[in-house]
Amino acid sequence: MEKNSKNNRRTFLKDVAKASALTATVGLVSTSTALANNESDLVVSNNNEHTFLTFPYLQNLTSNSVDVMFITNNKAYSWVEFGISNLTQKAHTVSDGFVTAYNRINCIRLNNLEPNTTYKYKVVSKEIIEFKPYDLKYGTKIKSDEFTLKTPKLDEDEVSCVIFNDIHDRPYSFGDLLKVNNRPFDFAIMNGDMFDYEEDEAQIIRNLLTPCASLFANNKPFIMLRGNHETRGKFRSELKNYFSYPTNEYFFSFTKGPVHLTLLDTGEDKPDDDDEYSGIVDFDAFRVKQALWFEKEMQKPECKSAKYKVVFMHIPPYHSGDWHGTLHCRKVFSPLFEKYKIDLVIAGHTHRHGVHLPSKDHSYPIIIGGGPKKGNRTITNLIANKDKLEVKMIDDSGKQVGEYIVTG
Ligand SMILES: [Fe+2]
Questions:
Q1: Which PANTHER family does UniProt cross-reference here (predicted)?
Q2: What is the whole-number distance in angstroms between the Cα of residue 326 and the centre of ligand 1?
Q3: From the CB of residue 395, how many other CB atoms can be counted at a distance below 10 Å?
Q4: Do 330 and 281 meet the contact criterion of CB atoms below 8 Å apart?
Q5: pLDDT of 225-276, one tens digit each?
């Protein structure tokens, strides 16, 4: 895949046409890795026919709710139809008395779900072709195929996830790495640098949403954590619109089963005043803000009572050179990891995979995933229950290249 995002209308429409064709013809598919590699078979659509630009993709799945996200090409009124045996329920978003409409990027929460239950759902969208004060005109209505999702049970005794890092605009890597992953997972974490920089919506759709939504995210949620490359490019501020975060912050924490997970946004790798950033970043203050927040999180009963505490962060505080980002993470976060006895840090950034055991510098292990070139990519999986938390790292040939176990 080319390093730079292609930004021309023709390529975008090809992707749109492919995504639309897939949506119209198949349900759960696993063929999306071909999307960016083989465009010659795609039908180019040059009209503005109302269409989905992505499969639906899940965020924030809990025992009783989930956010279903999807994007359309034209402004529309969109909703989700869902149910256990039939799609008898309908969800749309209401805010300030308005039913959300005349928008393209949808994030629709399904509430009051039953725990440990499989739901069927589809997304529906009605184009709005004219929106005059007293005369709103609908256009084409489209429906996706039917998908499924399963809510976790209450008080889960086991939790599992896969972790991707440093994909760097290589959409085929998601499929390549999922193929070699050898364990089931409940959700995925994107641990930073999914992109080289943020250029436009087409890049986000083509290089992340389409492969992930078609491979697994219509059925299992994922979390998008920023790395030091998501902070770059003219579309950097729009990135958040495409995901749903519990507190609308890029950093947050939650407990799942026996594990308390904290996700930190480690920001840029060079000083804020580096010429490369042209005076428009302020990450030192952002990291300090997160450190203050982290200390409060650690006081919460749900964190104190968790069997395992795991931190996800793109730039690790050690084993990643001596640039400012690493050293500042070391300064503001590492003492807190020591103080609150973090069991494990999972990171990326260096493009050199490794399991770094506790040492005189850090009493917690640091697992760093590789990437982004073929032969250097890894996927990491984590499974935890009351007896142990086990992490395995697999390279893109299927070989296990790292392992760490924390006993309960
Ligand atoms: Fe990277």
A1: ACID PHOSPHATASE RELATED, PURPLE ACID PHOSPHATASE
A2: 13
A3: 19
A4: no
A5: 999 999 999 999 999 999 999 999 999 999 999 999 999 999 999 999 999 9
Model confidence at 21: pLDDT above 50: no
Nearest to 106 by CA among 136, 69, 76, 75: 69
Enumerate residues 6+ apart whose C-beta is below 8 A from 47. Answer: none
* pLDDT for res 46: 53
Domain boundaries, the chain: 62-150, 159-407
CATH of domain 62-150: 2.60.40
Bridge pairing between strands 400-407 and 388-395 = antiparallel
How many angstroms separate the alpha carbon of residue 8 from the centre of ligand 1? 25
Please tell me the distance between residue 278's alpha carbon and the centre of ligand 1 in angstroms. Answer: 21
Retrieve residue 90's tokens.
């309908």
Q: Which CATH architecture does the domain made up of 159-407 adopt? A: 4-Layer Sandwich (3.60)
Quote the ligand 1 centre to 348 CA distance (angstroms): 7
Interval between CA 211 and ligand 1 midpoint (Å): 19
Q: How far is the CA of 240 from the centre of ligand 1 (A)?
A: 19
